[in-house]
Amino acid sequence: xxxxxxxxxxxxxxxxxxxxxxxxxxxxxxxxxxxxxxxxxxxxxxxxxxxxxxxxxxxxxxxxxxxxxxxxxxxxxxxxxxxxxxxxxxxxxxxxxxxxxxxxxxxxxxxxxxxxxxxxxxxxxxxxxxxxxxxxxxxxxxxxxxxxxxxxxxxxxxxxxxxxxxxxxxxxxxxxxxxxxxxxxxxxxxxxxxxxxxxxxxxxxxxxxxxxxxxxxxxxxxxxxxxxxxxxxxxxxxxxxxxxxxxxxxxxxxxxxxxxxxxxxxxxxxxxxxxxxxxxxxxxxxxxxxxxxxxxxxxxxxxxxxxxxxxxxxxxxxxxxxxxxxxxxxxxxxxxxxxxxxxxxxxxxxxxxxxxxxxxxxxxxxxxxxxxxxxxxxxxxxxxxxxxxxxxxxxxxxxxxxxxxxxx
Length: 408
Known about the structure:
- By secondary structure, this protein is an alpha/beta fold.
- It has a domain of 219 residues: FAD/NAD(P)-binding domain.
- The protein contains twelve helices and 19 strands.
- The strands form four sheets. Strands 1, 2, 7, 8, 9, 10, 17 and 18 form an eight-stranded mixed β-sheet that branches.
- A hairpin with a 2-residue loop joins strand 4 and strand 5.
- The chain is globular and about 60 Å long.
- The C terminus is likely disordered.
């Protein structure tokens, strides 16, 4: 069965769903292929910066987001060894108000994809994209149902890869298998209840061989997410051979991070631990041979800066703006290369610096000697924390608050 669309989007997470909503609202015929059923939990820090509030307004999801999300995050902090430092969260200079907040991915992803469907997007879920074939008029994407044996072919002028960067697959935009390395970063995530973490604080947790973060999410839960090197995880497992990997990681955090230990004292695990990896942060390709990439597929910051969701959604907006501005040309096979170059330049202006910043911060956080050298400076000048948060993009306004704008 061959079905024609103007755009096929592979992946229904925040980046894919945002692109679908914006393009469908602009009159494009759009299909989203999402391989798992929602709601689904996912390894993710769950924080969404205040810089994303204008985009929620454009998507028509502001009211629901504000109703469901956790408390406003007004402070950043660092928990390292026996040091606990706090600073004010920086705000966008041109913002009319609002603060960043956290919302569980089982709620956020469901909300955004439902909004895309309401805007007119055809959602195939749970379906998997199994092949992409170049044609004279674009691409044919072969998809298969995860629940039946049904297969379809979707023809589209434009393909957007929003499938993330962690999972292997048959598509040219998906990663290939790489040998395991001692430096591989493995991600863990869990929710807790009855945590002592202050409601408006989002601290960075620093411990040997890894880093993490905590934030109040929805429904009274606190989200703890972290990354740890493979070799450090193996050492933790050897020290606690009768426990799970997640329990060993948690014990490692509590034993090396007083602030984390205090925040979790008396807290109760809510649900199961999740794990994923290895993650491979870095800048990848934003456009190639008629395929546009958004979210982590285009480039991924170390989770140390808690900007993953924000960057995914904003990258989708950057692309949708440029495709829509040249829609008539794109649909007859013209200007794709120009749009690709323009989108790539805009993406790199918006996100490259924070990806580099995340790499510097992550490698510092994982090295005990570097942490020990820097802590006296941070104790003397805690305002450096606010500067670091600003450097990581917490106050970088990509989507402007007004409803219309010229493409930069």
